[in-house]
Every structure is written in structure tokens, then in C-alpha cells.
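Anyone up for a design puzzle?
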């Protein structure tokens, strides 16, 4: 598989992860972004040793979107520092079943992960393992059945956007874990009903060496069909 690389220099690599490909997998028979990108780096290098590539942040396997990787330990350390302190600008678009009652709002919840089922749920703050989950959403289109929202992720919890939007009463179309909703045959949208309609379309951070603010964005016209 040829990776879709948006930017690469000696320190970082920014790429578009396809839906259905995990960022990193323990299954040797299953391709993941780390192995795909390492193969790319090996093919481009004359060095015999395996290339260095650090995972900085992740996307759920069914989610398509933009990722940045560190190509040196120093770059990875700085990117991780940003992620844990200032935070990255992580922006998503989602197609929801229904329209939020409040068209633009910030959501603050507590989420706990169940490792046995690989799911998360909204919980009380004093629940063991509970973590604060925050995001801001803005409705940009809606009709009687669906709405399109833009989401800025403040925290990065397990399945956070999927859990919080489902808890709001507007699950993401195609989400088999947190909603059973798909696009009906009489809808004019061209979304494939079996695919999770969540896309990480924009990523912002500061270059770990040059300190230059970077913004990578892919304009997905198919998220504006409502």
C-alpha cells in the first residue's frame, strides 16, 4: 500500500490514514500505518537499520484522517509535550443521525473505558477509571434526518467523539458500536452506509524543530451534501 503523505521532512511525517487501517496493530498479518510508513521510509533510505517512527496520537480504526508521526526521538518528545500541554488542534467533521437541540455547544463529560469490550461510556466523575472528556461542536448543515457538524477535540479519550455524540442523542452515522443508524436508501447522500461517517480533516501543531505553526487540512466536499 502506498501511503498518502501530506508532508515529510527529516523530523516529522504527516499522512492521511484511510478508514479501516489501524494506526498500530499487534497482528502481524494485518497492515497498519506504522508498518506501511516504515516500509516507505526504508525504501527511501540507504540505511540498513529499521527506520525510527514514533506514534504521537491515534485515530480509531474506522476513522479516516490526518496523523503526524515523529521521525526522530527529539521530534517525538516535543510533539508529545505539545499534545500533553498546549494540545494539538484536532478538527473533525461528522454526519449525525438527527440534529443537536443546541446547534453549537461545548460538551463536558466523564468517560470510562471497558477493556473487555473495547468500548467506552459516559459515567459519573467518581467512577473508577473515569477521565474528563471535552469537545466543542458546531452544526453546519441539517435536514429532517441528518446533520453535519464540525468538532474540535479538546481531550483525546477512547472513542470520545462517538460516545459523546451518541450520549447527546445524535449518534454518528455508520457507528455500529454506539448507534445502529445508517443512511436510508431514499436519502440522496452518497455516503456508504456501512462506513463510520467521522473524518479528522484538520490538524494543527508547531513544528518540533523550526517552531513554525503548521496546519494541514483536507477539504472533504462529501461532508456537505445535506
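Challenge accepted. My sequence:
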Amino acid at each position: 500500500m502506498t501511503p498518502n503523505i501530506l508532508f515529510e521532512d527529516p523530523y516529522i511525517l504527516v499522512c492521511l490514514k484511510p478508514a479501516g487501517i489501524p494506526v498500530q496493530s499487534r497482528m502481524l498479518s494485518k497492515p497498519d500505518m506504522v508498518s506501511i510508513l516504515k516500509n516507505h521510509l526504508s525504501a527511501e533510505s540507504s540505511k540498513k537499520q529499521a527506520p525510527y517512527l514514533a506514534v504521537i496520537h491515534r485515530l480509531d480504526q474506522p476513522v479516516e484522517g490526518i496523523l503526524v508521526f515523529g521521525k526522530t526521538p527529539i521530534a517525538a518528545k516535543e510533539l508529545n509535550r505539545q499534545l500533553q500541554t498546549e494540545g494539538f488542534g484536532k478538527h473533525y467533521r461528522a454526519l449525525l443521525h438527527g440534529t443537536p437541540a443546541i446547534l453549537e455547544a461545548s460538551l463536558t463529560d466523564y468517560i470510562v473505558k471497558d477493556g473487555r469490550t473495547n468500548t467506552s461510556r459516559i459515567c459519573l466523575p467518581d467512577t473508577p477509571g473515569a477521565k474528563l472528556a471535552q469537545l466543542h461542536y458546531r452544526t453546519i448543515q441539517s435536514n429532517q434526518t441528518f446533520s453535519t457538524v464540525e468538532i474540535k477535540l479538546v481531550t483525546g479519550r477512547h472513542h470520545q467523539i462517538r460516545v459523546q455524540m451518541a450520549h447527546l442523542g445524535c449518534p454518528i452515522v455508520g457507528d455500529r458500536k454506539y448507534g445502529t443508524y445508517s443512511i436510508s436508501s431514499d436519502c440522496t447522500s452518497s455516503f456508504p452506509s456501512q462506513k463510520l461517517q467521522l473524518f479528522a480533516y484538520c490538524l494543527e501543531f508547531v513544528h518540533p524543530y523550526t517552531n513554525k505553526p503548521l496546519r494541514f487540512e483536507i477539504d472533504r466536499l462529501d461532508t456537505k451534501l445535506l
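A detail worth pointing out: Confidence is low (pLDDT under 50) at residues 185-192.
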